[in-house]
Amino acid sequence: MVSWLPSLSPKSIPLHLPSALTVRHVLYGVLIGFSLSVTSTSLALYFQQRKRERLQDQFEPRPIEIRIDEVVDGVAGLIGNTPLVRIKSLSDALGVEILGKAEYMNPGGSVKDRVALRIIEDAERQGLLYPHTASRIFEGTVGSTGISIATIAKARGYDATIIMPDDVADEKVKALQALGADVERVRPASIVDKKQFVNLARERAAHFGQDSISSHSAILQESSSVVVTTTAGDIIAPDHGVMTVQDQDELRSKPRGFFADQFENSSNYAAHFDGTGPEIWRQTNGRVDAFISGAGTGGTISGIGQYLKSMNEDVVVVLSDPEGSGLYNKVKYGVMFDQKEAEGTKRRHQVDTVVEGIGINRLTKNMDYGLSIISDAFRITDAEAVAMSRYIVQHDGLFLGSSSACNLVACIKLVKKMGWKEGQRIVTILCDSGNRHYSKVRLVLPNDDYLHRTDIPIDSKIIDDLLTAPGAST
């Protein structure tokens, strides 16, 4: 044994390992770091939650969140508060969120339920109508407003007379008759023609009660937006003097004729500014990039558009307009004229399109309310409307009407024009169901006789081409 070699015990071997103290420091550091990470994440989540709560505090509870103890009062309680539905096929294909306000879920089957209810309620508040007095409401319409008026009238104790063109879809006529409305069908005519359906409705209201042997008709109020008559005789004439209590009771209890006049009556606009617009704002938590709608009376696009712009001036409001309507040119060029209106070129009637419910060749009071905030317009062809109707049935299972199809085509065109693909939100109106256009447009049936007779091309690739095109024309 060599005695001079040092003893090599395990304790004396210099191992290059951290000491227990160092390991302890490392562990403390890891624990502290993890705790800080968890704490910071928790704080971030907390502040995000608080931010969401503050944002939600700006909105009333969503009325579409139906509670099991909620009971609505009659058919009027069912109107409005319709859901927003994401159109999956179009949204996924475009990289945006296309949201449709499902107005076909109203009890009368269309967006016009809101208008009919507001018109009648406003008339009652003003003392122009009294329920259950055998009074009669008159309206000229292509169908949906008439169905809504007949629905509300029946529930409120009124009769209804609906005058409409004789070329509208038969389903609308049958619905009106089922609701007990008197339906008068007339030949399509220009608004300047006394026999045009709106003018005839005004005339019928003005002469209500004159055929009665025991009653006399007197004009209560007549203006550009309302006509009311009564069978109460002469008691309201200016030279009658102060009415007695008996006179007032007679005036309230006698039947009246009331012309609703959806085109000029500002209750139309108010229904959407006070109702539909705020609903959309709540349902989207205030995140809307664009709103698209067609226009017939103009109340929908004006009322909703004005409300959304009042909440966020950056919201883009866009018109969807069918062939033959002059509104496209009014928005784009400031003139109300369409080439198809040239003498001898019209196929069927004033607004030369298979689409019902939107399109017009005059500027109504309700449209004028919102004209200044509409920044763009797209013209939608009959072929595009029919193609979209069929596309949306096949890909989303949604059976929609022709005006809804126009709105969805315009959504695609706007997205392409703007170059949007990062989740922008476009809200539009799904006005009514396709079951009101079944016999006319032949949305899903192989029988295309109507479309062939009217020379409307049937091309299933139109929507696919729009979705894949690099841009879209206006």
TrEMBL record:
Topology in the lipid bilayer: Single-pass membrane protein
Cofactor(s) the record lists: pyridoxal 5'-phosphate
Keyword Glycosyltransferase on entry: no
Parts of the chain that traverse the membrane: 26-47
GO terms, molecular function: cysteine synthase activity
GO biological process, one term: cysteine biosynthetic process from serine
EC id: 2.5.1.47
Domain Tryptophan synthase beta chain-like PALP: 77-432
Keyword Transferase appears in the UniProt entry: yes
Catalysed reactions listed for this entry: O-acetyl-L-serine + hydrogen sulfide = L-cysteine + acetate
Keywords associated with the record: Membrane, Mitochondrion, Mitochondrion outer membrane, Transferase, Transmembrane, Transmembrane helix
Subcellular location: Mitochondrion outer membrane
InterPro entries for this protein: Cys_Synth/Cystath_Beta-Synth, P-phosphate_BS, TrpB-like_PALP, TrpB-like_PALP_sf
EC class: transferase
Gene Ontology cellular component terms for the protein in this record: mitochondrial outer membrane
Family per similarity comment: Belongs to the cysteine synthase/cystathionine beta-synthase family.
Protein name in UniProt: cysteine synthase
Species of origin: Phanerochaete carnosa (strain HHB-10118-sp)
